[in-house]
Amino acid sequence: MKNRISRYLKKSTYLGLFLTLMSVQEFYAQQVTGRVTDETSQGVPGVNVLKKGTSSGVSTDLDGKFTIAAKEGDVLLVSFIGYNPQSIKVGKSSTINVKLAPDVASLEEVVVIGYGTAKKKDVTGAVSQVTAKSFADQPVVRVEDALQGRASGVMVSKSSGAPGGEIKVRVRGVNSITGSNDPLVVIDGLIGGDLSSLNPNDIASMDVLKDASATAVYGVRGSNGVIVITTKKGSGKGKINVDYFTSIATIPKYLPTLADNVGDFARIENARRGTAFFTAADITAIEAQGGTNYQKEILRTGISKNLQISASGSEGKLRYFISGNYNNVEGIIINTNAEKFAARSNVEAQVNDKLKVGLNLFVNRFQNHNNFETFGSDQGSLIYKALTWDPTTPVYNANGEYNLRSTRSVASLNQNPVYTLDNSDFQQVQDLLNATFNLSYNISKDFTYSLVLGSAINNNSAQNYFVENNNNIPSAGFDTNKFTSYQMSNILTWHKEFGKHDLKITGVQEYNNSKNYINSFSGLNISLPKGYYFNQFADASSKKYASNFAQQELQSFMLRGEYIFNNNLSVTVTTRRDASSVFAKDNRVGYFPSAAVGYSLDEFLPKESFVHALKLRLGWGQVGNQNIGAYATDTRYNNVSYSFDGTTASPGIFLLNYGNKDLNWETTTQSNFGVDLGFQDRRGNLSVDVYKKNTTDLLLNNPLSGLDGGGGAGGSARGFITNNVGEVSNKGIDVNLGYDIFKNDDFTWNSNVSVSYVKNKVEKLSDGRTKIDGTFVAPGGQSRVLNVIELGQSLGQLYGATFLGTWKTEDVIPVSKTTGTPAGVPGQAKYVLDDNNNVAFGAIGNGTPKMFLGWNNSITYKNWNCNIFVQSVSGFDIYNMTQAGINGGAGDSRSFMSAEQVNQWTAANQTNVPTNSIFSNSSKFLENGNFIRLSNLNIGYTFKDVAGFKNTSLKVYASGQNLFLFTKYSGYDPENTTTRSTQGTSDVTAGINAGAFPTPRTYTLGLKFQL
């Protein structure tokens, strides 16, 4: 007992002595005062100033000032959201001033890898990053334009120059034949975003996950690559930014036709018919009149406006970014335009040291008037029709009324394209709401829980009034498509550093649910102009109703381990389990593993070496593709009505597809080897990736015979069954090179080049087939297929006859063994023949590009800046069906409109220009699609401290887009192609142009103001 009392008295003495010393220490502590400023030297309120090793801390006031008790040698920890934390050692002075540096690590040193981030130097997968800085000097209104040419391994092609037109994005080639090849888009953690709806000015960074070791975290949805988008967050003193620009869009060139020489058109028409269809008096009269160029009648100069306003900053523990965007675009085709309204609110609060919450809201309304892609089907687009329309018939007759058809029944047999555009009204409206709630809680120093709750509501409606048909009977319709989805992601992260070891383990439990509601109605012979709401007066036999509903669920678990040893060796291992409702019960669960390793060789490099950083990466993984209909495993029917008596419509059904309970997802297995290199004292960096990926168990629609309920072409219409058959491979190399050519206080020039090469190949087809006939039919009524899927070749094979010129008088013309008739006569088109002396049809080219290049240059000199962006695509062909129509190669465009026809074959002048209408699907209309484009040239000047107000700036700039195009292609633009969803995917029908909307040349003037 006595010993215990003695020990207690000793401890009490020691404690008393310690408290006394602490009191003395506090007594000698001085009052340290200071001020915290941001990068613009403005005081920052709400900054945390904490004495290291204690809980003693203060916050700065409205002017950024603070006072704290500290003694010499103490360390003050200064931290604020959006800025790099700093450690300041207290010296003899009682005054400390701190200048915060923006935390750019999230954009420049950190990569978003899905459900987390990683330092660039520790990334083991193939990831390309595009930050807002790289496209800040290009006036973009579409995110796809900002992505184009700036990320290696990513192909972005503008299929159409129409307002709101399709822009195709592909990551490392094409995997699927029937399913979608669109990459998965993740926006602030919300899975399944839409690139076209986003406001580019809201984006902070885009991280493209390319190889399977990076995309495996998204499992069954990762085979086409993943684009992870991080939107902006506010930091520092409040700022207001206003960006306004207006653009003038013009036609880069007009295609030459005989509409510009109408007398030659008439004379050639006489030669084609073999009679004086146009008399000499007629030709004199129409030459005096000058003819009508319908191409120039429907094309115009368009004007667009874009306004962006944002407010951002932070107040205490709250940071915010709020933006609004308005965009209005006039198409370069008459009576086409689009309008967009968008608003975003990103708010994040650091509730306490452990809890952080954020709420991101995004709303968007997009209205498209007369979407060009909805006009024209089997007869070709309105561009196609305008280029082939009768130049001897004016737009209006003597009474000021439209000439609905050619007055002489020559050239195109279709309706006057000017009348179609002036009197049709197709209104598409998309209303989108995205909401994402994020929560992060530090359970302990090493353990963090994160929650992502997301929801998307997408309402699409279309009301249309058409007069585009041969009988000039107006039709009207109304369609609605309501899509809703929600997501819950629970994320647990354990991160521990001990000695040379750094270990992070991430676990995810996730649930996704989506529903789609579709309703439509249409009818013919609506007498009231634009009578969307008067379908009850349509002919009873013409009324059509349709409705559909689809629901999908996905339940997932993911586990990822990241290990770093000695800051050199990085290892990442991932596995994901998905259970998808689109497949039958026994096939719903799949597992998608991946592994990658990276090793830094920096320590082995000489100190004065030209190369200062070198890293090797190796990865392998499997991901899936479930992009089929929600009920593709079930037999499905569709409604149809038919009038047996010509008056009363009787309801019925027809077969869409047979069900297949054995369906499973496509699986893409990919391996990747990469090298990352930094050189010349961090002025330059080079990244090279070589990859190979194989997609097996393709989800392929196989057509059924008519006896089995088929009848649709290639499975695109009715009568098909979906099977897991076939295999497609992609092999390629991605290169990205960045270099600071000049860098000093007054002059900087940064240049970045991205190059991608990919070779696509069909490795296997179903039932031992060597080919599958395509489904894209040439316009004009000849029913000639333009594409084929062929074993051993790339997707996008173009199909037709091989053109050899014309038969000459001295030629020995063979006779067909099946018909007994000659293969032609002198002056007619000559083609390669088969063994029976009939025209041989086969693959003649390929529309899938192999190489992509983007070269971005940012130059600054004092207050001046310049951006030059060059894009190039090569290794592909274009099937120019527009030129085929101009050459009279289509049944409904039988007259010659091509200027080359003035040099057509004659007995005295035996040229290779045929005298007859020729096959539209022949190599005569196959062209090299390679091109180099000056995509953007921007020059601006920035005024600072405008009107005497400090920390304000005004930038004035002028730019041009699509200024120069270097190509041998004879059409408007080799990048523009035609997509018809009923005739195959845009990847299977790549390279076909049947009158696509031209890409305009645009001149822009703009202002950027920051307060």
TrEMBL record:
Pfam families: CarbopepD_reg_2, Plug, TonB_dep_Rec_b-barrel. InterPro entries: Beta-barrel_TonB, Beta-barrel_TonB_sf, CarboxyPept-like_regulatory, Plug_dom, Plug_dom_sf, TonB-dep_OMP_SusC/RagA, TonB-dep_OMP_SusC/RagA_CS, TonB-dep_rcpt-like. Residues 384-963 form the TonB-dependent receptor-like beta-barrel domain. One of its GO terms (cellular component) is cell outer membrane. It comes from the Bacteria. PROSITE patterns: TONB_DEPENDENT_REC_3. Its main location: membrane. Coiled coil: none annotated. This is SusC/RagA family TonB-linked outer membrane protein. It is a multi-pass membrane protein. Residues 119-226 form the TonB-dependent receptor plug domain. It is found in: Cell outer membrane. SUPFAM superfamilies: Carboxypeptidase regulatory domain-like, Porins. The keyword DNA repair does not apply. Belongs to the TonB-dependent receptor family. Keywords: Cell outer membrane, Membrane, Signal, TonB box, Transmembrane, Transmembrane beta strand, Transport. Residues 1-29 form the signal peptide.
